[in-house]
Amino acid sequence: MTDARKSLRGHKGYLTRCKKFFDSVTPQTATRANHSTYKKALPELQEKIDLAYGELYDDCQDNAEIQALDAEINPILDLVFELRIKLDLWDEELTKKEAAEQAQAAAAAAATPAGTPNPQSTLNQNQSSMKPKLPQLTLPTFTGKYEDWLLFRDRFNQSVHNRADLSGAEKFEYLLAALEGPAADLIESIPLQDTNYPIAYNRLVDTFQHTREIIFRQVDRILDQPEMHSRSASALRSMSNITANSLAAISSLGQVTKSWDAIIIRIITRKLDSTTKLRFNQTLPNKDMPSLQTLLEFLNKEVIDLASAGEMSTASTAKPYEKKQDSYRRDSHPSSSRPKPISMTCDLCKGSHHNYACPKLNETPEKERKRLVEKSQLFGQT
User: Fold this and answer.
1) What is the pTM of this model?
2) What is the DSSP secondary structure assignment for residue 145, as one 8-state letter?
3) Domain boundaries in the chain?
4) Among residues 69, 100, 213, 217, which one has the fewest Cβ atoms lying within 10 Å of its Cβ?
């Protein structure tokens, strides 16, 4: 199974969990935390699905395979779009509810004599000041790789798990939004409820807080770094960062790495290009063994020097999917073996694109999208 196929499977699993949650919530019962979480997550999910589609399309050998791929991908993208429309409905109801609460608070304040504190108003203000705005919360994505667990755990604990102002259900939502692949599969069957958050969280900890495997994976990251055949600032930066971060992760698990310097230095210097290796040796004042810190400081200085000298390696800034799309449009070198793209028709404007990519829809203000979708009868119900 290709990486793109595995990624698409993970995205479909996450989308299925999203749909289950959306089906259990109405615009009247949705919270602003619900809205904020999925307002950020769904567009990101759509981009990831687009990238996976582009890679899978590039592997298609004939029109039959393209048709099969389109038949698989179109319902997925339409479901993403449908959920985003439902988010707009949530936002409408939440805005009305918030406006009503503000009007009620204003009426209560007007009815209170000047100089008399309003207990309810004071309580609301205190609660508002104590609870940070949820849309500002960003989390890393965890797919189930042991080497990524410590970073994810620490950031999630600080941003979500240790916060007293979030309910169990809200924490559970953030946890679900941050998981993909095997990690998401591990807790997908647990109902989204306040009391189930500790169960889901502890299941992840029990599975991925595996000290031996984490240490092995971090050592592998150091050993498996590719050899450099030419001087590149990006490659040197990557080598320095991976080495330092992996050793820090190993040390945090109780392993004493201070005596590893000679071994790590030898591993890294064997991967350096000949010019960089020579430059490092020329900086050493004698025949004694240098410290690992000396090597890392040298690599970091080389990165700065290469950048300032204009030798920074550059890669194309075009997204992989955009490159592939450009290659599909080229007519200068036709090939009978290359399949032709299958045409698609938008249900809104009858143009040749997916429903979710319709310019007419995307240019429509959020408040008007519901009416446009209902008028076009795009979905059976929204």
Assistant:
1) 0.50
2) -
3) 139-209, 212-308
4) 100
Q: Is the dihedral of CA 160, 245, 297, 305 positive or negative?
A: negative
* Entry field: residues in the chain: 382
Distance (Å, rounded) from C-alpha 117 to C-alpha 119? 6
Q: Per-residue confidence of the chain (382 residues) as pLDDT tens digits? A: 567 888 888 888 888 888 888 888 787 788 877 777 788 788 888 888 888 888 888 888 888 888 888 888 888 888 887 888 888 888 888 888 888 888 887 787 777 665 555 555 455 455 444 444 444 567 788 999 999 999 899 999 988 999 998 999 999 988 998 999 899 999 988 998 899 999 999 999 999 999 999 999 999 999 999 999 888 888 999 999 999 999 999 999 999 998 999 999 999 999 999 999 999 999 999 999 999 999 999 999 999 888 887 644 444 444 444 444 444 333 434 444 444 454 556 776 777 666 666 766 666 665 566 666 666 655 544 4
N- to C-terminal Cα distance for the chain?
Answer: 35
Gap between the Cα atoms of 179 and 10, Å rounded:
9
